Amino acid sequence: MKTTLKTLVAAVAITSSLNIASAADYTMRLAHQLPGSHHVAQAIEAFADEVESESDGRIEVEVFGGAQLYEPTEFHAAVARGHIEAASIVNLLWGGTIPEMQVFNIPYLMTSSHQLEQFPASEAAEMLNNKMASKGVKNLAWLLDANNAVFTSSDNPLIAPEDFQGIKIRGLSRVFDAGLIAMGASPATMPGSEVYQGLQTGVIDAAVTSADAVYSRRYFEVQDYAVASNLITVYQNIIVNPQWWSTLPEDLQSLVESAASNAAGVLLPKTDEIDPAGIAKLKENNMQVTLLSDDQVEALSTAMQPAVEEAFIESTDDGEKLIELIKQL
Predict the structure, then answer these.
(1) DSSP 8-state code for residue 107
(2) Under 8 Å CB-to-CB from 271, ≥6 apart: which residues?
(3) pLDDT value, residue 23
(4) Which fold has domain 149-232+272-327?
(5) How, if at all, do strands 149-153 and 206-209 pair?
(6) 2-144+234-267 belongs to which homologous superfamily?
(7) Per-residue three-class SS string for 127-171
(8) pLDDT (tens digit per residue) in 37-84
(9) I want to staple 143 with a disulfide (CB 3.0 to 4.6 A). Which of 41, 55, 236, 328 is the partner?
(10) Which N-terminal residues, if any, form the signal peptide (predicted)?
(11) How many CB atoms neighbour CB 213 within 10 A?
């Protein structure tokens, strides 16, 4: 029933947008899963405003947030098949389609502000852009969602590898979870919408997500401790349908690419500091927050990274090459 309702909503929204946008030469319907308050959602709105303004209204960008049109797992197919022109898709969802996109789940491989600034124009990014193209979509931007992670828990803070022994924790992906297993934890697969209840009822003991998500999802109501570090990187990719893209004149293509680049630039961190605003919100809500020291980061990296790298390389064709390219940043 849920899927049927989503499909009906999508059909109505798309039909309405076609009628409204008749004055524009081109229409870009862009779907994403984020709430309007999310920093990436705000960057997407800024992108849409810039495209419309700089094109003098020749391109109308209609943003459908909060998974209004399709479920996040349907974004890729919807864009590739031309059902909508664009979507912003989190890299965590590419795992089964493009296993190499899981490279960002390797702990402490690519999280520094310098690496993040260099990455979009790198050979590593080009390799991944080409892999997206082979799956029927064009990537316009690498929008940084997060380059930090927070381990939340109730009984004790999860600081050292031995603290994870026997802990039931909501994992992120099969590749990342190899690192949790290496420390003795038991990762569980669970939709984000069910994590709060899982923590509340004790189905799981802990979770890993960004500081912003800990706050927005109110984990602080059911978890006492937060341990933060620049653990992994999460991107959102603005993807477009190649056939639609080819209909745009070159000047409009350049304009859209410039707006996408500007949106990505706004999201880049200025320092390697761990989300000060997000951490402050957790402290304000009575969570005991630990920011890992360099030695503590090294201990977690030593415990997790080899297992995750092995799982990543086993699941990919170009995993080793991609890791080496990223290490050169």
Answers:
(1) T
(2) 113
(3) 74
(4) D-Maltodextrin-Binding Protein; domain 2 (3.40.190)
(5) antiparallel
(6) Bacterial extracellular solute-binding protein, family 7 (3.40.190.170)
(7) HHHHHHHHCCCEEEEEEEEECCEEEEECCCCCCCHHHHCCCEEEC
(8) 888 999 999 999 999 999 999 999 999 999 999 999 999 999 999 999
(9) 236
(10) 1-23
(11) 21
Two tokens, residue 104: 């960002």
- Strand-pairing partners, residue 149, are 229
Q: In this predicted model, what pLDDT tens digit does every residue of 152-192 receive, in sequence order?
A: 999 999 999 999 999 999 998 899 999 999 999 999 988 77
Within this chain, domains 2-144+234-267 and 149-232+272-327 share the same CATH topology: yes
Give the pLDDT confidence of 206-242 residue by residue, as tens digits: 999 989 889 988 999 999 999 999 999 999 999 999 9
Biggest distance spanned by C-alpha atoms of the chain: 62
214, with CB counted inside 10 A (0-12, 13-18, 19+), is: buried
Domain boundaries, the chain: 2-144+234-267, 149-232+272-327
Q: How far apart are CA 183 and CA 300, in angstroms?
A: 9
**Residue 6's pLDDT band (cuts 50, 70, 90):** low
| Burial readout 113-138 (b: 16 or more C-beta within 10 A, e: otherwise) | eebbebbbeeebbeebbebbeeebbb
Q: Are 278 and 220 in contact (CB under 8 A)?
A: no
Residues facing residue 226 across a β-bridge: 152, 289
- Asked if 227 contacts 287 with a C-beta cutoff of 8 angstroms, the reply is no
Mean pLDDT confidence for 313-318? 95
Q: How many CB atoms lie within 10 A of CB 298?
A: 12
What number of residues does the chain have? 329
pTM score, whole prediction: 0.86
